[in-house]
Amino acid sequence: MTIKSRIATITGKSSYFILNTFFNGGSSYPGKIAYKIDPNILSSIGKKYDLVIVTGTNGKTLTTSLITKMLSQKYDDILTNPTGSNMIQGVVTSFVTHHKKSKKPLAILEVDEANVELICKHIKPKYFVLTNIFRDQMDRYGEIYTTYQKILDGIKLAPDATIIANGDAAIFSSKDLPNKIVYYGFSDQGHENDDFKAPTNTDGVLCPKCNHIMHYHSISYANLGSFFCPNCGFKRPELKYLVTDIPKLLPNKTTFEINGNTFEMNIGGQYNVYNALAAYALASEMGVSVEQIGKAFNYDEKVFGRQETITIKDKSLNIILVKNPVGLNQVIETILSDTSEYSLAFLLNANYADGIDTSWIWDGNFEEFDYDKIPLVLTGGKRSKDVTYRFKIAGLDMDKNIQTEDIEDFVDDIQNIPTSKIYVLATYTAMMNLRKILTDKGHIKK
Questions:
Q1: β-strand partners of 377
Q2: Would you say domain 46-297 falls under CATH 3.40.1190.10?
Q3: HSE (CB half, 13 Å, CA atoms) of 102?
Q4: Euclidean distance between CA atoms 98 and 33, whole angstroms
Q5: Residues noted as catalytic
Q6: Which pLDDT band, with edges at 50, 70 and 90, does 301 fall under?
Q7: Of the N and C termini of the chain, which has fewer Cβ atoms inside 10 Å?
Q8: What CATH architecture applies to the domain 306-440?
């Protein structure tokens, strides 16, 4: 390690200690300081780690968390970034604050799509786990093809790494790569002869080889499924790991089968089954047994801001991160499966980490909610007026709405909710602000 790297590491550790001891945390600023002192710090402190990079549009945080739990059954020295701070500064923070217990520890890191190349310039991963690609923060990423190219720019720096990719996403099998690629997805058993197109306005349904509209044997959601192109013959690759059945799908519990093995997970949503499948595939490739994987799924630990349940007196808040139409619609579908009484909240910010363009909310299926059965909807955040208007157009009676831009006021308004359960949908910085306020008020332990 160079002198500059040592200084950067010590400075990062010191700032992390101060922020987390006296100011309720700091997951990216310590790394930002260290990276500014030494832009090559990852080359110095990361070379002793076996690195797994988890990237894609949706599902990175939960997939990373599940992988970490699974590999913890086999490895006793793992570095990760559980708060979802996945840009270069957050990754550097994770490294400078990790206390190594072994000569070759394991790093399992969620990485922002645009930061994959930055990380791979310094550390060559052993594995890439690719979740999906959807339109998201188009001011930062552009279209899905430019987003994938950002990931590919990093993968090309690590040709010896194994790629664990979602085979149901056509874009992930559209390029010839020297890497070993293992695909996972949902079984289309019983639908092999079906032939239909995706619904109107579904993004990413043009064949990446010839631009003809793709057809499907089956679709799980959005553009994910058993696809094929009737024009050029491009089709879904052979899957090694498959979800073969989902017997139970509730808002807070899911039972599913992977390659014939039955598992249960204390989180809802079909989209989260994909995250579980991705984690299963990576863990299996790394030698974790089915029994060990099952134990990891059974942990009743909520993931930071992803269907995380927080209790405020007699109110139960289920906080769910939303950031693009596909993810939002999957969350709405999950909430709609809840037969109990609940209220709604939506916190909308438009900071850089959220994406400054909030027009994506108009592609969300807000009209699916039965507002006659929802007694109250809270709206907040810097763009609270925008999301309030979206609810109004969707059919919400404004007498059932409380709007406030200040998230601290939003926490106070929770006391006026007539139901004990509230689903809180929030963009990233709004979710972080909400958690900080709840921590300051003692509702969340540090």
A1: 344, 401
A2: yes
A3: 11
A4: 16
A5: 357
A6: low
A7: C
A8: Alpha-Beta Complex (3.90)
